[in-house]
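Z., the sequence and structure:
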Amino acid sequence: MIGVSRRLAGFFTQLVFCFLNII
């Protein structure tokens, strides 16, 4: 469960960074 949550958090972080790079 913890591993999945950590992976999900990393995915969201990457998504945010991509979003900021686009803007």
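The chain has a mean pLDDT of 90. Helices lie at 2-22.

Let me know what you think.
H.
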